[in-house]
Amino acid sequence: MSLFTRKRSDSVASLGEQSLIATIRQWLGSAAPESPMGMGDDCAQLPPTSKRQLVTVDPVVYGRHFDDSIAPRHVGEKLLKRNLSDIAAMGGQPTAAVIALTLDPRTKLAWLELFYRGLAACARKYEVKIVGGDVAQAENHFSASLTMLGTATSKRVLTRQGAQIGDSLYVTGRLGGSLASGRHYRFKPRLIEGAWLVKQSNVVAMMDLSDGLGKDLRSLTPNGARARLDQNSLPLNKGCDVRAALSDGEDYELLFAVSAQTKHVIFQRKWRQQFPRVPLTRIGELVSADDADEPSLNLECYFGYEHLR
Amino acid sequence: MSLFTRKRSDSVASLGEQSLIATIRQWLGSAAPESPMGMGDDCAQLPPTSKRQLVTVDPVVYGRHFDDSIAPRHVGEKLLKRNLSDIAAMGGQPTAAVIALTLDPRTKLAWLELFYRGLAACARKYEVKIVGGDVAQAENHFSASLTMLGTATSKRVLTRQGAQIGDSLYVTGRLGGSLASGRHYRFKPRLIEGAWLVKQSNVVAMMDLSDGLGKDLRSLTPNGARARLDQNSLPLNKGCDVRAALSDGEDYELLFAVSAQTKHVIFQRKWRQQFPRVPLTRIGELVSADDADEPSLNLECYFGYEHLR
Question: In which domain, by residue range, is B56 found?
Fold first, then answer.
């Protein structure tokens, strides 16, 4: 479905801001709680919390993250799930979100309805409350920026810091070909897996794969170390080669490091008992940057997705 | 200063995403705490809180909220202060914020630096930590959407709900002419005043004035009531008439209702002792919608700013 329309009566301009906001609340339905916990005031209110809190923000931009070939409900789902994947990467659980919409007045109402209904269905599934937002105008543009709040599910939170030389590297699922296959909007954020991993004390660092393993790995690799990957062990999606797995991006899988002392047979067995249908692959390890071994894969050659280039 | 440049070496495209984000952290300086409380991971972490939490989101969009005639540092300040005004309107105090940037690769680096330095100086002044963000690309576009978190300063939070027939209406400061005078970016969010008002038990409802008193008043007016304003009492900015005070918008003053039992002389004296330099004006009261009195001001004629029209 095309995003913009020339017919004023089909566009958001036919409603104006006030009615549009009221209509959005209807589309969101039970995903949008009543005031004071929800929309309708200067701020939304959230209850106090005894847990550590998490905050992340990610947008979808027309022409960058989606185009007219993607169903609007999938765009809405993608917006929510991109952020859920960040919460998953810390071992957290989502609580509430706000959405800032910046759109051309020619945006088609029917498109926007499907976008919000897709987002709302997804929010209900993952128990996220949409508590507020903003609508602003811009010409020839549509973007929606979602800020997601969450809480820790455990006493600790996993970050990108914490891996050491000797640690093994694991990824969930399979990599590559996300855009071509539609997985970039059909993926399932690894919330349950992340919340389980944060409770395993031998998991020492974690992140989600959004720009491609080749680029993202650098964030998990401490100074003085490098990642030595076994290119034959990389879990490839159908039709993908090593380059695709390293560079395509938007995999939304978890990448994590487990400590050198780990008994991998036992760790992997525990995983299979918990998540029999989610592949888990040990893809390599962290070695000293001066390690003389010939790398099986020269990561310098794989850049992943670099924005603004 | 113009926002976009044709010279690639002067633009954000010359840096690319990774270096741009590192550069933004430098510009933010001490306003951006270190990881894990700040940028650099999938989510920012915030400590638990025993207070009720507040969340709001507001953007600045090029061509809507600012243009090339506004100094970039004022744009950054405005982005922060628009959100602070929402926190003030609930009687809260700000804690942390995340910023989603959507920009053309031709955005001038020098412009962006001044924008972030202005925002950072303002964040330090109001003790807000910039804990995270996102950078995304869009053609011919610049917008920045800021999500602000805060906490209640008192056991209660003031909302737009709670006013009754018989209550008096007050506004802080003076109204009108915000765009022409530059007050739309020079204003001071009423955080201290809001935090004081939330502790006065006779203040029963509050909001900030962003779209103009004529429009915003409707949100504070309960069903079955109407606002009877004394047009001679409206606190006008220099060069402004009643229409400007009701319709211009972007005043970022507080509008609130105090209960019918209030001794106004005492209330106003307490205010003057606290805030000798901030005007406070009783502008009218809430009467029954069927009240036969001829209104001195027919609010139906003043619409305020309606977006997307």
Answer: 8-152
A203: three-class secondary structure by DSSP: strand
Interface contacts A/B by beta carbons within 8 Å: 239
List the B53-61 sheet strands across, edge first.
A44-46, B53-61, B142-152, B92-103, B129-137
**Residues A140 and A176 occupy one common structural domain:** no
Question: Do residues B41 and B141 both lie within one domain?
Answer: yes
Q: Is residue B79 in a domain?
A: yes
8 Å CB contact of A308 and B89: no
Task: Tell me if the pTM is above 0.80.
Answer: yes
A292: exposed, middle or buried (Cβ count in 10 Å: 0-12, 13-18, 19+): exposed
Residue B158 structure tokens: 């003031």
CB contact under 8 Å between B59 and A136, yes or no, is yes
The dihedral over CA atoms of B62, B68, B74, B80, expressed in degrees to the nearest 10, equals: 0
Nearest chain B residue to A92, by CA: B43
List chain B residues with CB under 8 Å of A109: none
Q: Which two tokens stand for residue B189?
A: 């969010």
Does the pLDDT of residue A1 top 60, yes or no?
yes
d(CA A306, CA B96): 28
How much is the average pLDDT of A126-141? 96
Instruction: Give CA separation, B46 vs A149, B22, B119, in Å.
Output: 10, 21, 21
Give the pLDDT score at A305.
Answer: 65
DSSP A215-282: HHHHHHSPTTEEEEE-TTT--BPTT--HHHHHHS-----EEEEE-TT--HHHHHHHHHHH-TTS-EEE
**Is A127 inside any structural domain?**
yes
- Give the span between the Cα atoms of B231 and B281, in whole angstroms: 12
In chain A, pLDDT over 90 holds for what percent of residues? 89
Residues A172 and A288 occupy one common structural domain: yes
The half-sphere exposure of A239 on its side-chain side, counting CA atoms within 13 A, is 6
Residue A62 · residue A143 · CB < 8 Å: yes
Angstroms from B145 CA to nearest CA on chain A: 7
A38-82 tens-digit pLDDT: 888 999 999 999 999 999 999 999 999 999 999 999 999 999 999
**Above 0.85 for ipTM, yes or no?**
yes
Which residues in chain B have their CB less than 8 angstroms from residue A48's CB?
A: 48-53
